[in-house]
Design a protein that fits this description.
single chain, about 160 residues, mainly alpha, Arc Repressor Mutant, subunit A, 3-stranded antiparallel beta sheet, 3 strands, about 65% helix, globular
């Protein structure tokens, strides 16, 4: 393997200039910002997102919940099993099609989700963004994600 020439090294961007690194490191920073709140709730970040997704529509199929969270069912199932063991969700087979598993939030899960939503405002404040800027940045990131998924032909669940 040959060593890059001085001119090709000069063409390389520093790590800080890579958008993928900016998104990755921001995700890590969000994880740290949420850690205290989630520790108080006894949840992992993915468990928290699962409860929030179920808040939008109770009684979702595992596959539709996976689509919302961009998770394959083999990744989502252990999360749901833990949440079920904690008493926050219930899973049941669809009476019309036994292959389909439905998930709903329990009363305990709704209480926990409501506490999480209240605590979420403090994390939003940590960003230092105004509500309008927060909404604009969030919409921009979602548009970026959706464009990348579309342009690469990715399966969002994979």
């Amino acid at each position: 393997m040959s060593k890059p020439s001085a001119s090709s090294r000069a063409e390389l961007f520093p790590l800080a200039d890579y958008m993928c690194f900016a998104v990755y490191s921001t995700n890590l920073a969000f994880g740290k910002a949420y850690k205290t709140m989630l520790d108080q709730l006894g949840l992992t970040y993915t468990q928290y997102l699962t409860l929030i997704a179920l808040a939008e529509q109770d009684m979702l199929t595992v596959s539709s919940l996976g689509e919302k969270l961009f998770l394959a069912s083999n990744t989502l199932t252990p999360i749901l099993k833990k949440l079920e063991a904690m008493g926050h969700v219930e899973r049941q087979r669809d009476t019309q099609d036994e292959r389909v598993v439905l998930v709903r939030v329990t009363k305990s899960g709704r209480k926990l989700r409501d506490r999480a939503v209240e605590m979420n405002a403090s994390v939003a404040a940590m960003t230092g963004l105004t509500p309008d800027d927060f909404a604009r940045v969030q919409k921009g990131i979602v548009a970026l994600r959706d464009t990348l998924i579309e342009s690469t032909g990715q399966d969002p669940e994979a």
